[in-house]
Amino acid sequence: MKLFTNEEIRAIERYTIENEGISAQELIERVAEGVSDEISSRWRSNKPTIVFAGPGNNGADALGVSRMLFERGFRPEVYLFNIGGDKLSADCMAQRDRLLREAPEITFHEVQSSFSMPKITSSHLVIDGLFGSGLREELKGGFKSLVQYINEVDATVVSIDLPSGMFGDWNPQIVNRNTIHATLTLAIQFPRICFFISDNAELIGEWKVIDIGLSAAAIAGSAVNFCLVESRDVQHRLRHRKEFSSKADFGSAILYAGSYGMMGAAILAARGCLRGGVGKLTVNSPKCGYSVLQSSVPEAIYRHNRGELNIVDIHPERTFSAIAIGPGIGTNELTVKAVGDFLASINQPVIIDADALNCIALKPSMLNSIPVLSIITPHAGEFDRIFGPQPSSEARLRKAIEMAKYYNILIVLKGHYTAIVRPDGKVYFNSSGCPAMATAGSGDVLTGLLLAMLAQGYPAELASLIAVYIHGLAGEMAAAENGEYGTTAGDIADYIGKAIKEIAGR
């Protein structure tokens, strides 16, 4: 799914109005109907309801919602803010006049100067239509006070398009107390980029998209830098295996993983790779890992490293389709040197995860040696250790976009909506996954799955997209079986094959 910036959405709206014979008022009516349908499906009409409408088109939407809810038996109390008496947009004025004409019995207040806060309790439904994507600066003065009051009373809040005070794209200076804390955000036509940044989760609450039928041609013809990866995006990219395939058709991979006390990481990564369909997997681990690897993952070929307890050299003895380094290798001095020597000598893209990232953090000059189109897979802590502390998840994502371009690599920034950041500036947010995946070893499984996809010949950009989605779906399936508390990384690995089957149909 394409994700559009505010400006891109406005361009699509203009195209729809100018080229498809749909007026701005008709679009407002579609918004109002969609929002009203959603509200009336969730709450009874006797629920006490207060609507706050701003002077722009977000306010126009809220007034349309008020009218339609009134028609459905709700009795909302409506506050329209028209400070000074001349601030209403033409569309908002038209919706005000229609509301008063068609629902004269409605309790309506047009605020032009002073304003007394209405009594709001936790039993109220508050419809937030103060400010949408057109907001240019953070809320101040009376609007800031109103937002703070709404947030304090713990009412159920439905925000139209965006919680008032939030920007649709980036929110670098956002202050939580100056933004509505929505229970439910009903986005118009598209989810917003800000929805996929963890800083904003408590402000947005649950979110759902209201389709208002904007121009399909304009949507299809618009190039974007942000996308949401869904099942259908993976389905048509997965290759079906031919009847006369052999293991040679699905690549040979080598995984450098494990150290004394951390062989579990190597096992989990190996299992993720094997379940991902690699033709042949070689695991290079310290000599201490021989018995546990051979018994736990008999399908993998074991190659012992020169080190007894740690990996001390990373020199593939032959050409492999794909290489991954990092899970459980530790940060022993000799291991750090081995990672640096390897990166300086290799030309093909590699997958760099976990302790290999921590090795780089100890010697940041290694960044300059990472081969073009390699994949690094940091969580927030690992990212900050390498690229410097970031004040927020938004700042971290923006830094990732900058670093992916500078080093010409892919950054898989792990989180609730794992972001696949490409060197061309495009960002793909992953839609699959669940809280059960916040467990030790989950990232190791992902590394193995990435390795499998790269070994099978998928380009790095596509391998990342496919692997991250399958990994999330496997986590969902494992959690459905074992619950959010009882799911382990091993369970996620076990469900990879089933996740692929569900997507591909075989």
Contiguous low-pLDDT stretches (5 residues minimum) are none
- Cα end-to-end separation: 24 Å
Count of discrete structural domains:
2
Which shape, going by the Cα principal axes? elongated
Could you tell me the number of beta strands?
Answer: 18
List the quaternary state of the chains.
single chain
- Indicate the mean pLDDT: 96
**Number of helical runs?**
18
Could you outline the blueprint of secondary structure elements for this entry?
Elements: E1 2-3, H1 6-19, H2 24-42, E2 49-53, H3 57-71, E3 77-81, H4 90-102, E4 107-111, E5 125-129, H5 141-152, E6 156-160, E7 184-188, H6 201-204, E8 206-210, H7 216-220, E9 226-229, H8 231-235, E10 252-256, H9 263-275, E11 280-285, H10 290-296, E12 301-304, E13 322-325, H11 333-345, E14 351-352, H12 354-362, E15 375-376, H13 380-387, H14 393-407, E16 410-413, E17 419-421, E18 427-430, H15 442-455, H16 460-486, H17 489-494, H18 496-504
Parallel strand pairs: 2-3, 2-5, 3-4, 5-6, 6-7, 7-8, 9-18, 10-11, 10-13, 11-12, 13-14, 14-15, 15-16
Antiparallel strand pairs: 1-9, 16-17, 17-18
Helix pairs in contact: 2-3, 3-4, 9-15, 11-12, 12-13, 13-14, 15-16, 16-18
